[in-house]
């Protein structure tokens, strides 16, 4: 395979990047609680709050800051207002009163009434109000006559969790109690903070179509080799993407041709590659037949295991690269840390694409710190011959440096000290450095990286993705699988015309047994690690969820 | 299901025996600077795979004990043998491993302490019993629970030199108390 030509010829997928909602968003707990509403004198509003806050401690785990503490009569939800007015008709001067919310944890009602009594509205005629002054009994003055100032407590229902969006806030405001929607509210355990989600989405959008196209190419390679199902994974470093964008901004040339520079590793599915108990693997049994006949059905016994799935393999390629480079960084490390009885998991030979992306070097601008290992490269498994990093310079000022690196084998060049790029706006190129950061450079698992997949990963891989600390995971909606771990709700097609409605009705009539579970594992408040999840919705494609076997495909784990 | 009486189980029963072997693997993990989780796979009353957490050495956060044990087993047995194999693991399998074990059609899982942060067999999710394209498997927790917890406690009072920003833990003391008030330090393995 001419890898570089393959990469050059890739056509990006055309479509949109859409965040996968969290299960809390798609199935909000919508927990409601009981509260009370009391009408008080508008002039004592701040005193009411002080008195309530002093007397009744809040539950810190239930902040309820989304609830308005007061509502004017005209802003009460219709039902609540009707209920209140059926008990106590509106006073003559409604502008003088306001309704305060007493929210959980609910205090003792007698104590509450006594506490609020001094702030009761002047509902009655002056005569009763004056009673304390005409009947001067010491002590009475400070304790208003309860019969004169009565507090009516009206039951109300309130949402205990903040609204997810303005629409929900409006609904609650109209039906329950006035609610504030704060987009910046800390709800990060339930859903990613909107600004973080937006920033990631913006960084992913421009090149996602390319990475997913590459993932499909990797999948095709896996399928054609007979080693696995047609599933592929691509790991991308957003920090390198940012550097490319930055360089492009400085030099003013087109960015899209350099999309592949940020790819750290690719891996295809290899579930048929493993030999078990010394017997030939499924790939060996069906050598030369592609796709592997085992892929026509789901027979767990010949499915290899999830560690051979594309995502897990890609994760291990990053680790493998670090293991190899760690030995170079510190030769003593390997002997001290590697146990004698810990064989590496059996993995197939790397494919052309896998090997190309894992072991190529990147051209580095002079602003970057070069940390290429100073050890003999012979220890590295290099499929593509790399010159000694010391002299590994790719300089051709007439063309785009990244392009030249891509399309031609690296050329030996003078040491960096002698490099002069006269009259070139292109940043000076220093020795090529690896894309993957070694452990000594702070490289740790797949922290802050993105992974692009052809299919929705299985539950095992979804959790493996979290344990590897990825920043985000992206797969095409077309690649959804019933066995997947990331989707949080059925894919809804456009509901523009009657045909769609009919299709929807048809879909809802599907036997409950067929309904998949939606785990939304990328962002679960219960789990310690979270990642951003995105689906890629292709333009022009029919994006109605394909139900595995009904579409002629076996259900399997990707 | 819980083992109500550890001592009954511990006395020479086969479950106790295999869990002791898993704990030994956990101890080995602790000594190698790994999160101390160990496991064994038992097929026809024979241990056919040993596993301990291997994430630090391998620099791969997915190398949990279960995968290591399965890899060892598959060197001598076909995958289908897992259908008649039980796993003994010191800590409840995480979501990743719970799903993997299901995909491998494990027969049953016996674990020590629960994992309320990542557990996939009841701790956080219950993948072992959720409907899926693979059969469910039974899970039995609480076997040598205290010993499994003590292993973890001994690990977590150490400083993690591998972490990007290690947290100083100089003043931490090993907590040897359990909620029921018994102070119990397991014998060293």
Gap between N and C termini of chain A: 25 Å
**Arithmetic mean of pLDDT of chain A:** 78
Number of beta-strand segments of chain B: 5
Pair with the most extensive interface?
A: A-B, 58 and 46 residues
- Structural classification of chain B: alpha/beta
CATH architectural name of the domain at 6-93 and 109-120 and 137-156 in chain B: 3-Layer(aba) Sandwich
Look at the structure and name the CATH superfamily of the largest domain in chain A: Cytidine Deaminase, domain 2
Enzyme class (chain B): hydrolase
GO molecular function, one term (chain B): zinc ion binding
Family (chain B): Belongs to the cytidine and deoxycytidylate deaminase family. ADAT2 subfamily.
Domain CMP/dCMP-type deaminase (chain B): 13-125
Characteristic terms for this protein:
heterodimer; A: 558 residues; alpha+beta; Cytidine Deaminase, domain 2; 2 domains; four-stranded antiparallel beta sheet; 16 helices; 12 strands; 31% helix; elongated; B: 189 residues; alpha/beta; five-stranded mixed beta sheet; 6 helices; APOBEC/CMP_deaminase_Zn-bd (chain B); EC 3.5.4.33 (chain B); tRNA-specific adenosine-34 deaminase activity (chain B)
Describe the secondary structure blueprint for this structure.
The complex is a heterodimer of chains A (558) and B (189).
Chain A: H1 3-9, E1 15-19, H2 23-26, E2 32-41, H3 45-55, E3 70-71, H4 78-87, E4 97-102, H5 109-116, H6 126-134, E5 153-159, H7 166-175, H8 194-225, E6 232-236, H9 238-251, E7 263-268, H10 282-285, H11 310-329, H12 331-337, H13 352-359, E8 361-365, H14 401-407, E9 429-434, E10 450-453, H15 459-467, E11 472-476, H16 498-508, E12 532-538
Parallel strand pairs in A: 10-11, 11-12
Antiparallel strand pairs in A: 1-12, 2-4, 2-5, 3-4, 6-7, 6-10, 8-9
Helix pairs in contact in A: 11-12
Chain B: H1 6-10, H2 14-31, E1 38-43, E2 46-52, H3 55-58, H4 65-74, E3 85-91, H5 95-103, E4 108-113, E5 139-141, H6 145-156
Parallel strand pairs in B: 3-4, 4-5
Antiparallel strand pairs in B: 1-2, 1-3
Helix pairs in contact in B: 2-6
